[in-house]
Amino acid sequence: MFVHVVKSKIHRVKVTGADLNYIGSITIDQDLMDAANIVEGEKVQIVNNNNGERLETYAIPGPRNSGEITLNGAAARKVAKGDVLILITYAMMDIEEAKNFKPRLLFPNEENNLLK
């Protein structure tokens, strides 16, 4: 049997931009992606603490040490600059592996989205 488990979570980052005219995705500071073990193109669940929206898109890397968190395309309508988000990725694994798996949990600086 396989189960979905949390692979990584970036907890409480602020939206720095929303670009409706971009093709789609969420741009995430490459340093945050690396620390959370998120790869380019990976599906990301986005939970907006300000308005309760939950959506999924895919990750693209932003400039390192920028703190960038930008929602692109239609997802830009679901956020406002300054909204606080939780970003979550999941992995499928067999149940025995899942029992011992430890996700990457990040708690960046809430003012600038940078790693502490």
TrEMBL record:
Keyword Glycoprotein part of the UniProt annotation: no
Residues bearing PTM Pyruvic acid (Ser): S25
EC number: 4.1.1.11
Binding site for substrate: T57, G73, A74, A75
A Gene Ontology cellular-component term: cytosol
Active site residues according to the UniProt entry: S25 (schiff-base intermediate with substrate), Y58 (proton donor)
Cofactor annotation remark: Binds 1 pyruvoyl group covalently per subunit.
A Pfam family of this chain: Asp_decarbox
Catalytic activity: L-aspartate + H(+) = beta-alanine + CO2
Keyword terms: Autocatalytic cleavage, Cytoplasm, Decarboxylase, Lyase, Pantothenate biosynthesis, Pyruvate, Schiff base, Zymogen
GO molecular-function terms, A-Z: aspartate 1-decarboxylase activity
Location within or outside the cell: Cytoplasm
PTM note: Is synthesized initially as an inactive proenzyme, which is activated by self-cleavage at a specific serine bond to produce a beta-subunit with a hydroxyl group at its C-terminus and an alpha-subunit with a pyruvoyl group at its N-terminus.
One BP term from GO: pantothenate biosynthetic process
Location, primary (coarse class): cytoplasm
Cofactor(s) listed: pyruvate
NCBIfam families: panD
Stated family: Belongs to the PanD family.
Subunit organization: Heterooctamer of four alpha and four beta subunits.
Function: Catalyzes the pyruvoyl-dependent decarboxylation of aspartate to produce beta-alanine.
Protein's UniProt name: Aspartate 1-decarboxylase
Source organism of this protein record: Aquimarina atlantica
Recorded name of the encoding gene: panD
